[in-house]
Specification:
Layout lengths: L2 E6 L5 H19 L7 E5 L14 E7 L5 H19 L6 E7 L6 E2 L2 E2 L1
Parallel strand pairs: 1-2, 3-4
Antiparallel strand pairs: 1-3, 5-6
Helix pairs in contact: 1-2
Protein name: L-dopachrome isomerase
Keywords: Cytokine, Isomerase, Secreted
GO molecular function: cytokine activity; dopachrome isomerase activity; phenylpyruvate tautomerase activity
């Protein structure tokens, strides 16, 4: 159920996309403590983004989870995801925002129902 939605203004090829999806899935699962089979990652590339008045490489993310989030976990997620974006897309961590949502079970749907 953890879902990470990433947006970047960098066009990303299929191989790099696959690498980011795999790396982010492993990181989110490990840090939050949920099985990889529950994790969904979306990567939206080539999205127009202005950050600090420039269109230099940047990214924005939203991570939604039912539990597992908190100050320490969120900090570790922010650091780890920043590292992935720096390594794979050369996006400096100072040009990446991420928002965390801890969702109540009835507000997250799956398999025709809610959790």
């Amino acid at each position: 159920m953890p879902t990470l939605n990433l947006f970047t203004n960098i066009p990303v090829d299929a191989v790099t996309t696959s690498d980011i999806l795999k790396d982010a899935t492993k990181a989110v699962a490990k840090i939050i403590g949920k099985p990889e089979s529950y994790v969904m990652i979306l990567l939206n590339s080539g999205v127009p983004i202005a950050f600090a008045g420039t269109e230099e490489p940047a990214a924005y993310g939203e991570l939604i989870s039912i539990g597992g989030l908190g100050a320490g976990v969120n900090g570790k997620l922010s650091q780890t995801l920043s590292e992935i974006l720096q390594l794979k897309l050369s996006i400096d961590s100072s040009r990446f925002y991420i928002k965390f949502y801890d969702s109540p079970r009835p507000f997250f749907g799956f398999n025709g129902s809610t959790f």
